[in-house]
Structure formats: structure tokens, C-alpha cells
Amino acid sequence: MKKFSLLLVVALLGCLVYSCSKDDDGPYYVSYLSGTFTPGGSQSLVCTVDGASVTSGEVKLTVDTEDQSKGVMALNSIVPGIGSLSVDVAIAALPSGDDTHDAGYEITGEKTVDGKTVSCTGVLATDHYSEAGRVLTLVVTTK
Length: 143
Fold this sequence. Notes:
By secondary structure, the chain is mainly beta. The chain contains one helix and nine strands; from the N terminus they run αβββββββββ. The chain has one helix at residues 2-19; strands at 35-37, 44-49, 52-53, 58-63, 70-76, 84-93, 105-113, 116-127, 130-142. It has a nine-stranded mixed β-sheet, with no helix packed on it. It is elongated and about 80 Å long.
């Protein structure tokens, strides 16, 4: 009887370890910050490039699934002369919001393309419960 009890305990421990293993079924969505932002869209983009307002194009923000302080921002038809540009960005939470709104997230990044340095700085204001509550205010400068 003791052998059977010991065997049962070992089997149960084996099941516990197996059931708690990490499933690697592929990529998964971990951040509500990721999204596509357009001027006047449901996820709004307020953007200037070298001081001029942007009225078309889109910005796609993808937050890293492993480290949410990093991401990639794709600027499509935003920077004149550069159709599409991907910029690695740092994402940092701004201090203190309230129960339904974050204070926001600061986004910064820089990339050099064809001898032109494109710098991006901005703030993503979010609403915990609504994707429509997101506004990305972005300042892009080129040198």
C-alpha cells in the first residue's frame, strides 16, 4: 500500500509540473498599446513633421511581447521622401493616471535613413477600457 501511495504522489507531481509548463503556440497579443493611428481615425494621430501638421498617412505601433518598454513604430506616408520607415522606440509610462485613464506613455526613437536622421518623440494617451480612447501625439524631426 505504501508503494502505491508513493507512486500516486509521484504521478500527481508529474501531472502538476506538466500542466504548468509554458505553451509556445506562437505569438500572442500582450499589450493594448499596439495599434494603428491615423489623423481623425478611431485611434487618433496628431502629428507634425518638422513643424508641419500631418493630415494623412498612418503610424503602426507594435509593442514587444517580451519587453513592453520597447517597440517598433512604422511610419507610413508620414515623412516626406520616405514612403515607409520602421523606427525602434522606447516606451515609458508617465507618472500617475486615474482608475480609467493612464497618464500616458512617452515614446522616443531615432533612425538614420539615406543620410537623414529621423527623430520621433511623442505621448500615447490611453483609456483602459476603449481602443477609441487612444491618441498618439507625435513630433517627427529630420536632420
